[in-house]
Automatic annotation (TrEMBL):
Residues 1-27 are annotated as: Disordered. This is Ubiquitin domain-containing protein 1. It holds the Pfam family UBD. Residues 16-113 form the DC-UbP/UBTD2 N-terminal domain. Gene3D superfamilies: Ub domain-containing protein, DC-UbP/UBTD2, N-terminal domain. It comes from the Eukaryota. It comes from Morella rubra.
Length: 114
């Protein structure tokens, strides 16, 4: 009986592993400075979309970390991952957290600052 429960738990855990987001393209080429400004604006306003500030802080730390550390951060914060690329997550109380692609990775059409 314990074995079948363990198997399901393992299958469940593998579905919750964080992975890199798929490549994406911004509507127009942007510089790293513009991308960083967009990210800062998002994180400054994110708690106003609902949810708990400590979860937003954990998600920000996870997006800025490598995959192994990001996994540890979301696991320890109790974040429930719906999309493996972190675009949609929930906290233990059921609050939804949606992250735009630009906070998760760089676009394919990123250009050098002039």
């Amino acid at each position: 009986m314990g074995c079948s429960g363990s198997s399901r738990a393992k299958a469940n855990d593998s579905a919750k592993k964080i992975r890199k987001p798929k490549p994406w393209k911004h509507t127009e080429p942007i510089t790293r400075t513009q991308l960083m400004q967009m990210r800062d604006e998002f994180w400054d306003t994110a708690p106003h979309y609902g949810g708990r500030k400590e979860i937003w802080d954990a998600l920000r730390a996870a997006t800025e970390a490598d995959l192994t550390l990001a996994q540890a951060i979301v696991d320890s914060a109790g974040v429930i991952i719906q999309s493996a690329d972190l675009t949609i997550c929930y906290d233990e109380r059921g609050a939804k957290y949606e992250l735009p692609k630009y906070v998760l990775s760089e676009p394919t059409n990123l250009i050098r600052d002039s």
